Amino acid sequence: MEAMLEIADVVTAYGKIEALKGVSLSAAKGRITCLLGPNGAGKTTLMMSIAGALKPRQGSIRLEGSELVGLSPARIVGNGVALVPENRLVFPQMSVRENLLAGAYQRNDSGEVTADIERMYARFPRLKERREQLAGTLSGGEQQMLAVARALMSRPRLLLMDEPSLGLAPIVVKEIFGIIAELNREGVTIFLVEQNAHLALQVAHHFYLMEQGRVTFSGNPGELAEDEVIKRAYLGTRRSAG
Amino acid sequence: MDDHLIGIVSNIGVISFVALSAYLLLLTGEISFGQQAFFAIGAYTSGIVTAMWQLPFALGLGAGAATGAAAALLVGLPTLRLHGLQFAIATLAFAEAVRILFELFRYQIVRDGELVGPNGIEGFRNIRYIFENDVSATEFMLIIYGLLGATLFGLFLLERSRLGTAFRMIGEDDLLAATQGVAVVPVKLTAACLAGTIAGLGGGLYAHLTTYVEPAIFDVMLGVHSLAYGLIGGLGTAFGPLLGVVIDIGLLESTRWFAGYRMIVFGGLVAVLLIVRPRGLLDEQLVHRIRRAVRRRPRPSPANDTVLGKELS
Amino acid sequence: MIPFIQTTLDGLMVGSSYGLLALGFALIFGVMRRLNLSYGPSIMIGAYLGTLLYIKFGPPTYVVAIVAVAGSVMAGIYVERLCFAPLGVGAGVASMVSSFAIWMQLEQASLLMLPRHSYPFPSLTGGELWSLGPFVVRPDYLIMLAAMLAMSAALTLLLYRTRFGLGLRAIVENSLAASLSGIDVERTMLKAFALASAIGGVAGFLVLSANQQVTAMLGMWATLKGLIAMMIGGLGSIPGAIVGGLALGVIEAHSQNLFGPQVRDLAAYAVLFVLLVLRPGGILGTTAVRRGMGQRGGDRWTTT
Ligand SMILES: Nc1ncnc2c1ncn2[C@@H]1O[C@H](COP(=O)(O)OP(=O)(O)OP(=O)(O)O)[C@@H](O)[C@H]1O
Ligand SMILES: [Mg+2]
What proportion of chain C, given as a percentage, has pLDDT over 70? Predict the structure, then answer.
């Protein structure tokens, strides 16, 4: 299968501490790839490295063959990658509409941008009702929708999502995952970090397990019993063994 | 040592007191543009005590330090809840107000047929205790460095004490420090008072070193300089601000190497230094490494070092 | 009553120059959350370049104005590249001290250009006075007032009606999220800095042409007045800069009128101190409100 994203031997460090110790994985075009792992495994670090907010010390990150390492976050967005960051990070003092416009910052087709905003409102009706409300006053679930919509506004080829279910009520999580599946059916390649292994395995075509900065398992849902995945994703083999 | 050199070294010594004063507040996370006010208050007070009331020098210095502390407490109370730029500008406003008050301050008496005392914008001349009592320039330099040494020693003890840890905790995050059981208000006031004492003491020495003070000396420039000394020399140890003063006054005020381009060279160097070392030459990491290197030889105790490392970083 | 109103008018007039200075300051502080002490000295570089040109060749006044603004923009960009861009997160104090070091540099560079304490500066109006009924106004200051209002309107439009403004506001709210949205944070900040320096340059030119002279105190004066006006009005906001500038002007005019120049400065600092203690956010401060709104909702569903 053709790869959208290919990551090879990436090392990213905070000061002296290596949070990623040589990560290699790939995300197939048009598919949902999921990354699972316990707290502190380095999932967010990997997402930030792909998006260019952290600079890997070593290794390569390729988007359909072209190297992303060394580009600024803005250039990476321009190349068609958008990240829905952990904890959403909406712009709290800006209206819902302005948040969406910020997502389309690099686009020069203002007519199409307006049309896309309408499409987002159609997909997320609750955002439409609150279009002039300040984003900081939205509920957590609404903010998550806004963060997804904002990322989509750049019309990405690859959508990165870092724990979209974090801190949300189960109903809202279901809704978000419905949207993820729907986006994927429309052709968006998705690379998703998730703690909720059960839900992740339902939508993913392929998944990776990550522990302490390394990929420890790669497979398709069904290849590993779900309770084993959950055990590893929450606890990690190393820690549970030791 | 010739007189010129003694003068420079003494000057470095007295200015170090203001720098240490600003440094102490930086430890608690606050930027003050106003420590020169306590320096001024100390200078005027001690001058009045010795030159006008003709009391002993030690009493003058003590009075300078005490008024510095009292003034610091007075400003510390209302500015307690201010942070960052707001605190910095409040201290600046206070210090400039003090400077202008000294411009308006006239209190003169006749002594030996001459008028002595603060004379508004003209300043306060003839603080001649040192000359009248035959203290030589070298002796006075030793007095300055004796007191500076004692202050430094006090600061080192402080940094190792629980109070010092509380200072750094508040500097990191005062809300968090409060949840850890640090009594933020008294600790901050203590820091402000100590900083005022140090500046006031330095002011007293300064007045007697130069025999003449005028309000214009104590302007914002002095305040920002004393803050800059800590950043240049390093925030890891109380030696940092001293190093900053030595670099500034020692290298620049005293040499004529760059003539008209002095500030161009110096300003550029400082800016580049801060890019490379944003927390100064002697920053926390370097100090930590030096301490470990020094300590490793006589008594290796890695466990202790890691604790210290956490406290400092 | 008439003298009182006249003094207030004078204060508003002078205050408009403070407002203009504060506008540039507020822009930089609002975006970077860092203090640029070199703001005034950057203005001074531009003003001195303009003055140098003026006394050497006597060009038309608009040329002097262009040079003054361009010079302060150049100096501003230099400051940003050296003191702000290379210093990462958590180095706010270092940036400030660094900008102070560059202050020393810029001031000495200016004095190397023109070593005397003061030089003549071209006037826009010839310094004439207009009488409006019982009152006297100086057209120089009316120009300044108009410039202040026009610039703040333009800046508001820029911030709220353009893509650049959207990017700038996004950076202020969360620079990580802004960069993840495709906003080039570094370039946008540099542009904002250049713009702020340009506003400062205009302010400097107008003040000097009203005074018809430039002195070596310009750098310090501009930094202090801009900073005080910004703090009085409200940190980093456009209306705050204007209100702060005008308020400072009126306070100064009345205290000078009543007690003389020393008390004028004393009164300004006293008001600043008391205001900061009682209302840290300034007259139009919004910090408290802001914090509350940012938190609500965001944490409502979070379990941790
Ligand atoms: N800014 C930072 N500075 C230093 N270390 C960091 C920083 N951010 C993360 N780390 C460390 O890097 C490691 C990986 O963190 P990361 O946030 O990538 O984990 P994660 O897999 O996303 O965890 P979680 O599931 O809790 O979000 C952790 O050990 C963490 O302590
Ligand atoms: Mg994470």
Answer: 93
CB C199 within 8 Å of CB C144: no
Cα torsion B165, B171, B173, B177 to 10°: value is: 30
Q: What is the CATH number of the domain that holds C280?
A: 1.10.3470
Residues C24/C154, Cβ–Cβ less than 8 Å: no
End-to-end Cα, chain A, rounded Å? 37
Closest Cα of chain A to C175: distance in Å? 10
Whether A and B touch (3+ CB pairs < 8 Å), yes or no? no
Average pLDDT score, chain C? 89
Query: Which-ligand-closest: CA of A233?
Result: 1
Is A69 within 8 Å of A32 (Cβ atoms)?
A: no
CA distances from C304 to A87, A164, A167, C292 (A): 12, 15, 8, 19
Residues lining ligand 1, CB < 6 A?
Answer: A 14, 17, 19, 37, 39-45, 86
Task: Closest CB to C262: pick one of B93, B100, B266.
Answer: B100
- Beta strand B114-118 with B109-111 is antiparallel
Pairwise CA distance, residues B120 & C94, whole Å: 36
d(C-alpha C52, C-alpha C68), whole Å: 10
Place B295 in a pLDDT band, splitting at 50, 70 and 90: confident
For residue C183, which residues of chain A lie inside 8 Å, CB to CB?
A: 74, 102, 105
| Amino acid at the residue B100 | I
State how far the Cα of B28 lies from the Cα of A11, in Å rounded to an integer. 36
Q: Is B90 on the interface with C (CB under 8 A)?
A: yes
Q: The complex's ipTM? A: 0.91
Which residues on B lie below 8 Å from C95 (Cβ)?
Answer: 274
Query: What total of structural domains would you count in chain C?
Result: 1
B120 near C CB under 8 A: no
Could you tell me the residue ranges of all domains in chain B? 3-219
Task: Find the mean pLDDT for residues B272-291.
Answer: 88
Across the interface, of A92, A167, A168, the residue whose CB is closest to C173 is: A92
Q: Does A126 touch chain C (CB under 8 A)?
A: no
pLDDT digits (tens, 9 = 90+) for C85-139: 998 777 888 999 999 999 999 999 999 999 999 999 999 888 788 888 889 889 9
Decide if pLDDT at B254 tops 70: no
Within a domain: C144? no
Q: What is the pLDDT of residue C1?
A: 80
Give a yes or no: residue C129 inside a domain: no
- Whether residues B271 and C82 touch (CB distance < 8 A) is answered with yes
Instruction: Give helix B35-47 / helix B3-27 axis angle, nearest 10°.
Output: 130
pLDDT band at B201 (very low <50, low <70, confident <90, very high): very high
Give, using CA atoms, the residue closest to atom 12 of ligand 1.
A19
H-helix or E-strand spanning residue A58? strand A58-63
- pLDDT greater at residue C281 or residue B79: B79
- Containing structural domain, residue C264: 2-124+161-291
**Model pTM score:** 0.88
| CA–CA separation, C106 and C40 (whole Å) | 10
Residue B79 in tokens: 């500015």
Q: Residue B310's pLDDT band (boundaries 50, 70, 90)?
A: very low
Q: Greatest CA span in chain A, whole angstroms?
A: 58
Lowest mean pLDDT among A54-58, A84-88, B287-291, C175-179: B287-291
